[in-house]
Design brief:
With 200 residues, the protein is an alpha/beta fold. It has a single domain, classed as P-loop containing nucleotide triphosphate hydrolases (Rossmann fold), CATH 3.40.50. The chain is built from 7 helices and 9 strands.
């Protein structure tokens, strides 16, 4: 199935760079944007709800979806923890006449960007520095020393892929980064050059 006339917005970043805060800001302000709910094999955290924050699945359920080619992209982001974007989730949002916003891992973002280069806007949110990213992750209080180091190492690796995306936004000040992302998205939504607008 090819989605040549359907717009997709991707916001990607290393963990802790602020992509979720920027995504929430945009979703609250623009009702034509809809959050694309990812599938995940991890356990819910805090008040997270199935079907709202993630589609929580067992590893076996996730692998069954892989076998049936149900994902636009999927990755084993950490050992034994799978995340992916279901094709049915895109269809659900487009059917509601909205534009899906994907808040996803860097490798998954590259995969979708490669598949749909003409109708995707991809924004890479970069932390001011890896050291600042480490401080942000530490301040969450949710990481062990080992998991913190794993996330920092992964972030350093992912920053090397920022040139794969349409735009890089350095999040040294959240309000400024939100405004920058907002303007890029508004320009993208106004485009009608190689994207045909769905008339009905």
């Amino acid at each position: 199935m090819k989605y040549t006339n359907k717009k997709i917005i991707i916001i990607t970043a290393p963990s802790g760079a602020g992509k979720t805060s920027i995504t929430r800001y945009l979703l609250q302000k623009y009702p034509q944007l809809a959050f694309s709910i990812s599938a995940a094999t991890r356990q819910p955290r805090g008040t997270e709800q199935n079907g709202k924050d993630y589609y929580f699945m067992t590893v076996e359920e996730f692998k069954n979806h892989i076998r049936h080619n149900d994902f636009m992209e999927w990755e084993m982001v950490y050992e034994g923890k799978y995340y992916g974007t279901l094709k049915t989730e895109m269809e659900r949002i487009w059917a509601a006449k909205q534009v899906p916003m994907l808040d996803i891992d860097v490798k998954g973002a590259i995969h979708i960007q490669q598949q749909y280069p003409h109708n995707t806007l991809s924004l890479f949110i970069e932390p001011p520095s890896v050291e600042e990213l480490k401080n942000r992750l530490q301040s969450r209080g949710t990481e062990t020393a080992e998991s913190l180091q794993a996330r920092v190492n992964k972030a350093s690796y992912e920053i090397g892929f920022k040139h794969h995306f349409n735009h890089v936004i350095v999040n040294d000040e959240l309000e400024k980064a939100c405004r920058e992302a907002e303007q890029l998205i508004l320009d993208f939504l106004a485009r009608e050059d190689d994207i045909t607008v769905d008339k009905g």
